[in-house]
């Protein structure tokens, strides 16, 4: 019997307004445990591609249709999720429009890159966002 | 009960000789079904980081110690593995020395990039290697 970590996916959604001005990235207040601020995301279903799971979860939690820009990394430290071993494929994506909390998201927020409350983030989402911010600096 | 695809990892090992001359990439003849030519790889264990699983599998199947260069992509088409739904995190890595078949590998081969028998590859490893060759062209 094969046993592997659960496979999840999380999205760093870069949100733009109708005039293509960058508004910030989208974070959610989790409805389920562990409570706290998080990137939107969820588990990949059997029979579903990771990219499709990402788009489905972004839609379910934030009501946004997203376009994937690139895969940032896979985060798989066995201790990153306090419940069980979960590996998450993290994608950077972009979207337009107004996010609206849904499904596992209690509230949804838009944060300027220099105003993200990193210490309020659950799981290893602080590290994920720090890696994202670092990669943006390297591109500039 | 959460059910997600099994999580695996495969490696594109760029092999160099002692004088840092590129020798080719390492492929294996699989001992277990499905039989055929494949990238070395295997399942991620619970409690193990994906990068550690990659290094363990490369060592088990080819006897090589590898250094990870970068994550190429995650391949998760539900039909890519004929047995069940498996998502594979594919890493490009480098190594030195002489590969030796071990574990699930019946034979181990070193192929020049322009001599890889793409149509003999199992799973979606043909596509994975084509993506790799394409990314190398774009870098050059």
TrEMBL record, chains A, B:
Q: Which SUPFAM superfamilies match?
A: Nudix (SSF55811)
Annotated Nudix hydrolase domain ranges read: 4-137
Q: Which molecular-function annotations from GO does this UniProt entry contain?
A: hydrolase activity
Indicate whether Magnesium appears among the record's keywords. no
Q: Which UniProt keywords apply?
A: Hydrolase
Q: Name one Pfam family in it.
A: NUDIX
Task: List, alphabetically, the Gene3D superfamilies matched.
Answer: Nucleoside Triphosphate Pyrophosphohydrolase
Question: What CDD domains would the database entry show?
Answer: NUDIX_NadM_like (cd18873)
- Kindly give the InterPro entries that the UniProt entry links to this protein: Nudix_hydrolase, NUDIX_hydrolase-like_dom_sf, NUDIX_hydrolase_dom
Matches recorded under PROSITE patterns: NUDIX
Name the record gives this protein: NUDIX hydrolase
Q: Which organism is it from?
A: Halarcobacter anaerophilus
